[in-house]
Design goal:
It is built from 5 helices and 9 strands; from the N terminus they run E-E-E-H-H-E-H-E-H-E-E-E-E-H. By secondary structure, it is an alpha+beta fold. The strands form 2 sheets. Strands 2-1-5-4-3-8-9 form a 7-stranded mixed sheet. A hairpin with a 4-residue loop joins strand 1 and strand 2.
């Protein structure tokens, strides 16, 4: 079941593209936007993350950090980050535990790919509480970026 506003966000520790562990606890006291995406190098995923990249200063001005999470390996994510000049961490949920904990997980996806993260967006406040949750059933849809901004504005 997907998380909802008011839920405590499940903790996670995942490796970033620099092979360093990143945990939810690392963001205590800050707002965090967590973007799940199905697969690196695909069109809609690139649009989703490029939108966050291009608005990062806006989010930072609202005391928010951004991470992107997929089940891709950290090596694939590293190349994706480099090619797209992403200015935030991409985290590898290779073992698929975090996507499942957040309710953002396809058991079966297209082309017989099993165990892929759904496209989803969460805003987590500095106390680890979910303030915005959106899990999309269609991988072709983008998160509601305006709603994410409105949520962050209401927290400040």
């Amino acid at each position: 079941m997907a998380l909802q506003k008011g839920d405590q966000a499940p903790d996670f520790t995942l490796f970033n593209t620099d092979k360093k562990p990143v945990s939810l606890a690392d963001f205590k006291g800050k707002n965090l936007i967590v973007h799940f995406f199905p697969a690196a190098f695909t069109g809609v995923c690139t649009t989703q993350l490029c939108t966050m990249r291009d608005d990062l200063n806006y989010y930072k001005n609202l005391d928010a950090e951004v991470v992107g999470i997929s089940v891709d390996s950290l090596f694939a994510l590293g190349k994706f980050k480099e090619e797209q000049n992403y200015n935030f961490d991409l985290l590898s949920d290779f073992n698929k535990t975090t996507a499942q904990a957040y309710g953002a997980f396809y058991e079966h996806f297209v082309l017989n790919m099993d165990g892929v993260a759904k496209r989803a967006a969460f805003v987590i406040d500095g106390n680890g509480q979910v303030q915005y949750a959106e899990v999309l059933e269609s991988a072709g849809d983008l998160p509601n970026f305006l709603a994410i901004k409105e949520t962050l504005t209401s927290l400040n």
